[in-house]
């Protein structure tokens, strides 16, 4: 049995590339690999919820099987509700009726679980841990997954929030700050991947009420690349073990090709097998 004492599990987002993480987490559940602390961003937060409740296969079913059935991503949703995804279906119908979420198992879990959002007012990351209020859990998960421009601003505790990946895509420093000196990090891009180094100039009319968010979006590429550099450094030092796709990922953030998604899920499951024994 792998010893995960004092070890954090960090789950990157990446939209539909998160099916890779689904595969890794299903392997973990099949082999009863648990962590005392898990932190997830965007798709990583949603996948982490199913991992904490130990609903093996639920995340895959939501991301692949039900995508094929309900077609919940696309321009028609954006034109109708200014949201590229059908959030009503994803965050209400799915967990309440179609593929019920086991809140009782989640509440009873001994593992800490945090979800990351980006605060529109401050342009900083927020870290939420909720183990009692079902509605607040959904609010946080929805906010963590609200892609900039493609999804509306979402509110948590009456504060406007967007996708956690804007401000902290790979929150390994958060885990270390809480005392978890060893970490397993699941990324959704292959080793060596970097965003274009040039930062993006955000048009003034986008989020004009939130200048701090405009700045955070403008700096997003350099911040993300710096986080990848840090992960590589920690990996070389031996304090982090990274699980990532072995080849360049062709799955898009809002990918709808079921065969590509299934292949990436299967790759994630196989990569989960590469996890070595961990000592506290």
Mind explaining what this structure looks like?
The model has no long low-confidence stretch (mean pLDDT 95). Strand 1, helix 1 (19-30) and strand 2 (37-41) form a beta-alpha-beta unit. Helix 1 runs parallel beside helix 2 (43-52) and helix 3 runs antiparallel to helix 11. Strands 1, 2, 3, 4, 5, 6, 7 and 8 form an eight-stranded mixed β-sheet that branches. It is globular, with a radius of gyration of 17 Å. The chain is α/β, with parallel strands linked by helices. It has helices at 19-30, 43-52, 58-70, 75-81, 87-98, 103-108, 134-144, 172-177, 211-218, 220-237, 258-272; strands at 7-11, 37-41, 112-119, 125-128, 154-156, 159-163, 182-186, 240-243. It is built from eleven helices and eight strands.
Please give a handful of descriptors for the protein shown.
280 residues, alpha/beta, eight-stranded mixed β-sheet, 42% helix, globular
Order of helices and strands: EHEHHHHHEEHEEHEHHEH
Instruction: Show unreliable segments.
Output: none
Shape: globular
- Which oligomeric form is depicted? single chain
Judged by helices, strands and strand pairing, the structural class is alpha/beta
Beta-strand content estimate: 5-15%
Number of strands: 8
Provide the residue-averaged pLDDT. 95
Largest sheet: 8 strands, mixed
Specify Rg, calculated over alpha carbons. Answer: 17 Å
Helix content: 40-55%
Terminal residue distance: 13 Å
Q: What's the tally of helices?
A: 11
């Amino acid at each position: 049995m792998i010893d995960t004492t004092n070890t954090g599990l960090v789950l990157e987002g990446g939209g539909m590339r998160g099916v890779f993480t689904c595969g890794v987490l299903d392997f973990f559940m099949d082999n009863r690999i648990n962590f005392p602390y898990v932190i997830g961003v965007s798709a990583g937060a949603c996948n982490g919820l199913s991992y904490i409740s130990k609903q093996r296969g639920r995340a895959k079913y939501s991301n692949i099987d039900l995508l094929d059935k309900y077609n919940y991503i696309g321009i028609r949703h954006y034109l109708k509700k200014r949201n590229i995804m059908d959030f009503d279906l994803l965050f209400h119908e799915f967990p309440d009726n179609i593929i019920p979420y086991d809140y009782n198992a989640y509440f009873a879990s001994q593992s800490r679980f945090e979800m990351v959002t980006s605060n529109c007012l401050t342009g900083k990351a927020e870290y939420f841990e909720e183990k009692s209020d079902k509605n607040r859990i959904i609010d946080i998960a929805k906010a963590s997954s609200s892609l900039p421009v493609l999804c509306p601003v979402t509110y948590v505790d009456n504060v406007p929030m967007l996708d956690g990946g804007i401000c902290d895509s790979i929150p390994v420093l958060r885990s270390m700050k809480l005392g978890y000196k060893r970490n397993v990090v699941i990324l959704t891009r292959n080793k060596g991947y970097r965003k274009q180094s040039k930062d993006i100039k955000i048009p003034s009319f986008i989020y004009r009420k939130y200048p701090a968010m405009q700045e955070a979006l403008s700096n997003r590429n350099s911040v993300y690349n710096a986080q990848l550099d840090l992960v590589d450094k920690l990996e070389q030092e031996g304090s982090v073990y990274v699980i990532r796709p072995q080849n360049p990922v062709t799955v898009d953030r809002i990918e709808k090709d079921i065969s590509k998604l299934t292949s990436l899920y299967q790759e994630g499951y196989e990569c989960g097998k590469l996890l070595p024994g961990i000592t506290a």
